[in-house]
């Protein structure tokens, strides 16, 4: 039996939809070649080897005696005809099978590799030919090879279209390609290649590379396949077509075509590089032409956003494309040129829009009206309006427009400067604090936008977040200023009374603080927790300040025990109050109890151990702080005091890490 191949698909060069439809209308793929062409036993490899070994004389004799030849009815003749005639019959069969007549049925699939193998066998038989016979046979074989090559590469050129519609046909074309590549490698590996095999290597793999390139370029140029999008320029429509085609075609390659080839063909990499290179070359031509602002924006969007995120990071393609290292669609120098051109026309528009937003907000502040509430929190629309406006005029960097608004480096558009100006000049307004709170809450929207949309390595992000922190802390300072001023004289009572009635003093501190905290509940949750932590730090710090004032000096252990007990009770009350109101500053909770324990202890060795634990928890404590605190323990000898102080100096002079406590306390 001599199996061949099905002829190539009809309409292969037509528009994709028509091509696929016509391929569906092909004849029954299981049709046997026996219905179309004569058959003959397949030439065996042993037969070819035997002929190579025989002499010309034996071959001549063999021509007269060989009994098998190809007959017109497809059976094997028993006498008279030479194997040369038989082989010409085989060539004829191949030609007939490969050339599809108008009225002939489509050949059976699964035959391309068989045809390739038969041709390889015939090639190898050339080594026994005379010079005249060799020339004739080579011409015959090459003519069939050209037909086979044309059929195979016509199919391979339309791999993307046929991968789903005719996968078996495509597989057979690939198998024929593999057979030829394998034979090329065998030929090149021979120490003394057959001189009659001048057609080797045939380099079908190189032809395949060129065919894939042609296919890619054809599909990327065929813009009519992508529906026209309203309000999109010709340049924009071309970008859309190329990007869509590349993504869809590579998806087919990864899911359906890659598996048909051996790994050494690097199918995904080959297709990806060709699509990328064509896309990049066309994008460069577009970038170097005269473009409107909207097309520059669109082009930069493809370079910075759509191509790297929607195509290269696509869930189907990402793994394969990571191996290829495709790079950017445009050279960095050209990108910068486009950015500069776009910025020149857009920055003024962005600044003007943001300036109008800010001016509207400032006028609202001056009206001294209570801000609106959203979910119980004072609210401002500035951030929302500014972000929406900026998004409508989006540049290549999401941080640019936000930096223009918030940073003081862009007067008169600076939100920070406008906030500071209001804060200083409008303290007598009725709704002064609610407006401050609304603006602190406003920072959260800006901060969330920056965190989500600006890359970590972008310098704008650091500048924006730093500016927002300045605005927030500036607002906190004003909101807490009055509370801290009221607490100061209350704290003085500890030293004035030498910690007598310390429980009453602490209750007064808590009562005063609670009254202010109720006003801060209109802050958004993150800011409410932040201001409660600031209050917690202040309450603990001010208590420590009183202990370091050198106003109390106790000689008897009993007096020290009593003071330690009062400090512990005050510390517990303070911790409970702050924790109940949402403070998460648990790092503060051990400060006062540890100081109380140092006062209670009488053994200098035990005191040293407690000092070490204190220094571990609060590495910003210094010798001057400890010396002022130990003034309370009047029964320590000068030698003991010196020993304790030197112990701290040796073990706790490293640079503090974490939140500061003692470093904010000045000791006179």
From TrEMBL:
<dbReference type="InterPro" id="IPR042532">
    <property type="entry name" value="EXOC3/Sec6_C"/>
</dbReference>
<protein>
    <submittedName>
        <fullName>TNF alpha induced protein 2</fullName>
    </submittedName>
</protein>
<comment type="similarity">
    <text>Belongs to the SEC6 family.</text>
</comment>
<dbReference type="GO" id="GO:0006887">
    <property type="term" value="P:exocytosis"/>
</dbReference>
<dbReference type="GO" id="GO:0051601">
    <property type="term" value="P:exocyst localization"/>
</dbReference>
<dbReference type="InterPro" id="IPR010326">
    <property type="entry name" value="EXOC3/Sec6"/>
</dbReference>
<feature type="region of interest" description="Disordered">
    <location>
        <begin position="21"/>
        <end position="85"/>
    </location>
</feature>
<dbReference type="GO" id="GO:0000145">
    <property type="term" value="C:exocyst"/>
</dbReference>
<dbReference type="GO" id="GO:0000149">
    <property type="term" value="F:SNARE binding"/>
</dbReference>
<feature type="compositionally biased region" description="Polar residues">
    <location>
        <begin position="67"/>
        <end position="76"/>
    </location>
</feature>
<feature type="compositionally biased region" description="Basic and acidic residues">
    <location>
        <begin position="46"/>
        <end position="62"/>
    </location>
</feature>
<feature type="compositionally biased region" description="Polar residues">
    <location>
        <begin position="25"/>
        <end position="34"/>
    </location>
</feature>
<dbReference type="Pfam" id="PF06046">
    <property type="entry name" value="Sec6"/>
</dbReference>
């Amino acid at each position: 039996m001599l199996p061949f191949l099905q002829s190539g698909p009809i309409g292969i060069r037509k528009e994709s939809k028509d091509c696929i439809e016509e391929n569906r209308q092909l004849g029954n793929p299981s049709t046997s070649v026996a219905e179309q062409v004569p058959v003959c036993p397949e030439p065996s490899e042993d037969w070819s080897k035997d002929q190579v070994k025989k002499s010309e004389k034996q071959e001549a004799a063999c021509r007269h005696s060989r009994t098998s030849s190809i007959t017109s009815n497809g059976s094997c003749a028993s006498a008279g005809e030479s194997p040369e005639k038989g082989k010409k019959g085989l060539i004829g069969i191949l030609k007939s099978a490969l050339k599809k007549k108008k009225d002939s049925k489509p050949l059976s699939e699964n035959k391309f590799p068989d045809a390739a193998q038969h041709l390889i066998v015939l090639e190898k038989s050339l080594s026994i030919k005379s010079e005249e016979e060799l020339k004739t046979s080579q011409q015959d074989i090459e003519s069939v090879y050209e037909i086979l090559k044309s059929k195979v590469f016509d199919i391979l050129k339309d791999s993307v279209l046929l991968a789903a519609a005719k996968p078996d046909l495509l597989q057979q074309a690939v198998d024929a390609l593999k057979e030829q590549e394998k034979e090329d490698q065998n030929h090149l590996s021979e120490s003394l290649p057959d001189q009659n095999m001048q057609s080797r290597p045939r380099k079908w793999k190189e032809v395949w590379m060129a065919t894939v390139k042609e296919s890619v370029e054809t599909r990327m140029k065929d813009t009519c396949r992508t529906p026209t999008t309203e309000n999109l320029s010709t340049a924009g429509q071309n970008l859309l077509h190329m990007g869509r085609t590349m993504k869809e075609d590579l998806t087919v390659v990864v899911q359906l075509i890659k598996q048909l080839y051996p790994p050494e063909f690097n199918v995904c990499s080959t297709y990806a590089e060709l699509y990328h290179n064509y896309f990049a070359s066309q994008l460069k031509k577009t970038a170097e032409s005269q473009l409107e602002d909207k097309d520059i924006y669109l082009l930069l969007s493809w370079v910075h956003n759509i191509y790297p995120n929607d195509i290269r990071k696509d869930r189907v393609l990402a793994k394969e494309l990571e191996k290829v290292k495709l790079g950017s669609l445009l050279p960095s120098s050209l990108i910068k040129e486009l950015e500069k051109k776009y910025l020149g026309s857009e920055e003024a528009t962005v600044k003007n829009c943001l300036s109008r937003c800010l001016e509207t907000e400032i006028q609202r502040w001056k009206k001294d009206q209570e801000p609106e509430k959203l979910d119980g929190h004072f609210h401002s629309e500035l951030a929302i309006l500014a972000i929406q406006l900026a998004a409508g005029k989006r540049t290549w960097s999401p941080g640019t427009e936000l930096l223009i608004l918030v940073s003081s480096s862009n007067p008169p558009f600076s939100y920070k400067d406008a906030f500071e100006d209001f804060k200083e000049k409008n303290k007598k307004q009725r709704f002064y604090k609610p407006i401050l709170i609304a603006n602190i809450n406003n920072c959260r929207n800006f901060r969330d936008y920056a965190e989500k949309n600006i890359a970590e390595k972008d310098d704008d992000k650091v500048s924006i977040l730093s500016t927002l922190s300045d605005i927030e802390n500036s607002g906190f300072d004003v909101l807490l200023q009055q509370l801290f001023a009221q607490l100061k004289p209350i704290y003085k009572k500890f030293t004035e009374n030498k910690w007598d009635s310390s429980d009453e003093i602490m209750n007064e501190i808590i009562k005063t603080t609670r009254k202010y905290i109720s006003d801060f509940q209109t802050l958004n949750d993150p800011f409410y927790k932040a201001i409660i932590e600031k209050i917690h730090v202040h309450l603990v710090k001010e208590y420590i300040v009183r202990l370091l004032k050198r106003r109390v000096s106790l000689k008897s252990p009993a007096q020290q025990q009593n003071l330690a007990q009062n400090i512990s009770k005050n510390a517990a009350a303070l911790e409970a109050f702050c924790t109940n109101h949402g403070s998460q500053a648990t790092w503060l909770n051990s400060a006062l109890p540890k100081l109380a324990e140092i006062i209670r202890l009488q053994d200098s060795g035990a005191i040293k151990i407690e000092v070490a634990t204190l220094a571990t928890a609060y590495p910003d404590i210094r010798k001057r702080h400890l010396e002022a605190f130990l003034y309370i323990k009047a029964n320590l000898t000068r030698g003991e005091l010196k020993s304790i102080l030197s112990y701290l100096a040796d073990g706790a002079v490293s640079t503090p890490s974490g939140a500061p406590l003692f470093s904010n306390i000045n000791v006179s």
